[in-house]
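Data availability excerpt. The first of two example chains:
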Amino acid sequence: MAAAKPTPASLYHRLVVWALFLILLLPLAGTLLYSLATSWSATLLPSGLTFKWYVALWTDPRFLTAFGHSLLVCLGALLLAVVLILPLLFVVHYHFPRLDGLMNMLILLPFAVPPVVSSVGLLQLYGSGPLAMTGTPWVLIGCYFTVALPFIYRAISNNLQAINLRDLMDAAQLLGASPWQAAWQVVLPNLRKGLMVALLLSFSFLFGEFVFANLLVGTRYETLQVYLNNMRNSSGHFNSALVISYFFFVLMLTWVATRLNKERP
């Protein structure tokens, strides 16, 4: 059977979508080209191409340290979120399903307060005294934990509803499994891909966080976004290489999360 010919309306819609895509892509393409340019001032195109800015970036100890700090803080916050949220969600959905509505409201409270306001309060609370943590990664891990909570909670909650947790647990126990065995060997494997997607997307969001990192730790525990802000007065080519490297790192994480989401049964 011959394929239907595209209508003028569909062609118009495709043209609009591609035009918007190109408009959004142009600044990124310009930044990429500038990061590869030897010099680019009074000409339409750069006078030459080079990878020296990327070499300078990825051999800079300060950049590698900031990159490692961001990875450590984000992974620590996500690990804490999973360890605390996963058992809580299991208990709520299996034993107290009526509490799900209340949990949905409580989990969104971190977004009710702007990050600048939260940072001022945290500076007052943890700036001195027995719990002085400003300037350390621990205060960032705590902040990022609260920021990641809504993403991880909603993703896992939707997954638990999709697999029908109560029926799955009851069926496993009827077959002789203990509650711990049913949770570990039956429920958790069904949550694996959904959990990975939530973690990757949350990581992409936290990796670009700037306000908490800049106000609570600054250069005392420099993260990638703080490093990018502090290097704003350096070479434009170097900064462009930094932005492109950051963009492609986040793009790869998003691509992996999308692939996992498509492969979910």
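And the second chain:
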Amino acid sequence: MPAVGTEDAATLEAVSDERTRVLIIGGGFGGLFCARRLGRHDVDVTLLDRGAGHIFQPLLYQCATGTLSIGHISRSLREELARHRNVTTLLGEAIRLDPGARTVTAMRPDETTFTVGYDVLVVAAGMKQSYFGKEHFAEWAPGMKTLDDALCIRQRLFTAFEIAETLPPGPERDSWLTFAVAGGGPTGVEIAGQIREVASRTLANEFHSIAPEDARVLLFDGGDRVLKSFAPGLSDKAARTLTSLGVELHMGVHVTDVGRDGVTVTPKSGGAAEQYAARTVLWTAGVEAVPFARQVAEVLGADTDRAGRISVEDDLSVPGHPEVFIVGDLVGRDDLPGVAENAMQGGLHVAACVRRDLDGKPRRRYRYRDLGSAAYISRGNALLQVGPVRVSGFAGWLGWGFIHIAFLTGLSNRVSTVFTWMAAIGRADRHHRAFMLGGATAAEQHYTWSECDETPG
């Protein structure tokens, strides 16, 4: 952990010393839904988030490939919670929990720190991309978890075609026109399909020296089929659709090395490793708990699984610490899925627990209600799975669109996104594909959490 500057002498207190102080870590679906629900009640809520904004992560790949802008999939938490006068939003990265003093230490972007007190703590910090102990992969293979990730991928994707345009035919040009995706889950499938659409439709007539539609997209996964969380029939349909788009599926392999020039994959069943020359590699293969969540588990003596998910009681509280709740992807119970619906329902459940505590009523058990799963394959083609209902093709695409639009935060986001998609249906343009390579001369105040991410607090 780097030096974090001078800590404030005083702890930030809630507006009233008499009302219950609820501190929520993370402004994702779980934290936001919890804060909004408690915004109607007689408690003081503080929402601490490292970005001060809510991001609709399921649509990050649409931003990365130029269909949607940042504004379509994100919204300021201050704007979102402005009407809730008992909710305070703070910018900071939670780095240390002191359960005895009931405080959380947070780091500002300038690496100074401050502390926030609580009576009830809700940890909804989410997960980060996992490289399974090979963190050096991140330099060459960005994940898909943040807005920065999406903009980085957009830059790499469209820059690859630009560089290829300047090269003569041969292996070097071919490597720039080869895109490798590690991970065959929903995010990997969606980004692979979108890259092929960019190459074969959006950019098809814009270059002179290259034929973008000849770009290769390689999808690697250790399983025997893509989208293993879906029914086998839908998974098979997804594989056929991806293949028809031109995505090359390589199943039953692990990506064992990533570098500047490409990837190395090794069959799970054994055999010789194989190298693929690809100058653009994207990583969607796994997730793990953020450093603060691991520190929480350690100081509270809570059990965790290999990914850092925290074991909880039936009401989502940490065993032995009824004042601390875990929400969303970090919950290590009942194989709950790492999806937005689980986080939303968890956030609402914790808010209900807080209200019941105030009313002197017993808490209820958390019960997750599966509202279905959806995955976008290509324009006009998606999968939708809701209980026994299995839908694919255009009907699945409509269902996918309805689900995502319904969950978007803020009416303006929904309306503008609907019109963007309607316009995109009839033409190949992607109006939000602009990228910048950055400046080398202008002095910048560079704020980053990258050093803080290296080591738990």
